[in-house]
Amino acid sequence: MTIDPETLGYYEQGGEVTRLREGVGRLEFWRTQDVLRRVLPPAPARVLDVGGGTGVHAEWLAADGYDVELIDPVPLHVARAERLPGVTARLGDARALPAPDGGADAVVLLGPLYHLTERYDRVRALAEARRAVRPGGVVVAAFISRFSGLHDGFARGFALRPEHLAAEYHAADTGLMVSPREGGFRGFFHDPDEIIGEFADAGLAEPVRYGLEGAFWLYGDIDVWLDDEGRRELLLDAARRLESVPSLLGVSGHLLAVARKG
C-alpha cells in the first residue's frame, strides 16, 4: 500500500472531518446520499466503502442497516472511522483491495480516483472494485469535474491570484490539479466523457453518470438555501431533475458514475 507524501499530508490536516458537514460541502453530501439510496441494493447488503475517509458516508449507511467496511490509506481516517457504530475500518489501497472476490454487494469509491493521476491506476482501482463485488452487484465511483477548479476559483476569488488561475487553467486543460498553496489539493479532475472509457477498460458496463451539485454550488447565497429546510428540499429536487442532463454534467463540482457487474 502506498500513498504519496503530499496526499497524506493534505488529509492529515483533518479537513475531511468537517468538509461535507458544513458550508457548500453539505450539498455534495446530501446529493451523494440521495443517489446512493436510489442505486444501492437494499440493506442489509454488504458495502465496501473504499477511500471512505473518516466515515462520513459509512456512518449513515450503517445507520440505514448496511453491513459497512471502510478501507482507507490514511491512518487518521481509519482511527476515526473505526469508532463509528456498525462500521469496521482498516488500512488499504484501492488498487489492491484487501477483500475476497465477489464478497461485496456494492463497492463505492467516493474519493480514491481523485488522487490517482495515472489512468492506469484509476482503471486498476475500478477493476479491483469489479473483482470485489458479486455478479449483479453495484460499483459506484466519484469524480471531480475537469472544470471545477476554474469555477471554484472565480466563485471564491482565488482566480484573482495569478498562480491560482494558472493552476485552474492547467487542470481544465489536462485534468492535473496542483494547488500552489502549501498543503493544498493535488489530484486528477475528469472530463465527464473520460469516465465511460475508464469504466470500460476496467470491465464494467457503460455507467450512468450523475452530476451532484449542478450549477447550484456556485451560487453566492447557497448557504441560505441549505440552511432553510424548505428551500433545501426545493434545491435538492431541482438538482435531482437535472442530474443526468449531458450538457450540464461538467458544471457540477462532483460526479458519480454507477455500473452493475455483469
3D architecture notes:
Keywords: Methyltransferase, S-adenosyl-L-methionine, Transferase. Its EC number is 2.1.1.222, 2.1.1.64. InterPro entries: Methyltransf_25 (IPR041698). The strands form 2 sheets. Strands 3-2-1-4-5-9-8 form a 7-stranded mixed β-sheet, sandwiched between helices. A two-stranded antiparallel ribbon has the order 6-7. It is of the alpha/beta class. The mean pLDDT is 93. It has 2 domains: 5-145 and 191-260, 3-Layer(aba) Sandwich (Rossmann fold), CATH 3.40.50; 147-189, no CATH class. Strand 4, helix 5 (119-132) and strand 5 form a beta-alpha-beta unit. The chain has helices at residues 5-12, 25-39, 56-63, 75-81, 119-132, 148-156, 162-174, 192-201, 222-227, 229-242; strands at residues 46-50, 67-72, 87-91, 104-109, 133-144, 176-178, 186-188, 208-211, 254-260. It is built from 10 helices and 9 strands.
Compact summary:
Keywords: Methyltransferase, S-adenosyl-L-methionine, Transferase. With about 260 residues, the protein is an alpha/beta fold.
Write out the strand line-up for the largest beta sheet, numbering strands in chain order. 3-2-1-4-5-9-8
Q: What's the level 1 CATH class of the largest domain?
A: Alpha Beta
- By secondary-structure content and strand pairing, the structural class works out as alpha/beta
Count, helices: 10
Quaternary organization: single chain
CATH topology of the largest domain, what is it called? Rossmann fold
Let me know the largest β-sheet: 7 strands, mixed
**CATH architecture label name of the largest domain:** 3-Layer(aba) Sandwich
Computed Rg: 17 Å
GO molecular function, one term: 2-polyprenyl-6-hydroxyphenol methylase activity
EC number: 2.1.1.222, 2.1.1.64
Organism: Nonomuraea harbinensis
Keywords: Methyltransferase, S-adenosyl-L-methionine, Transferase
